[in-house]
Design brief:
By secondary structure, the protein is mainly β. It is 6% helix and 22% strand. A three-stranded antiparallel sheet has the order 2-1-3, with no helix packed on it. The longest helix is centred in the C-terminal third of the chain and has 4 residues, at 60-63.
Length: 67
């Protein structure tokens, strides 16, 4: 079940919507202002880097070949 992020064009709130399938189409409305004017945005993810984890990604040596 994919989760997509949307940004309300009316009030600017960013919110998530859970879809049961990736082909499902729902009427999206802002949970704050109830506006149906929302656009899908790219989600941001984070990861924890602790003292036992390297600060560079594991593919750092080979990833530079693609930049």
């Amino acid at each position: 079940m994919p989760i997509y992020e949307f940004k309300c064009k009316n009030c600017g709130k960013v919110f998530e919507v859970l879809f049961r399938t990736q082909h499902e189409r729902l009427n999206i409305s802002c949970p704050d202002c109830r506006s149906e004017e929302a656009e899908r945005v790219l989600s941001v993810f984070g990861s924890k880097v602790g003292k036992d984890m390297p600060s560079a990604p594991p593919c750092a040596a080979t990833c530079s070949d693609f930049t």
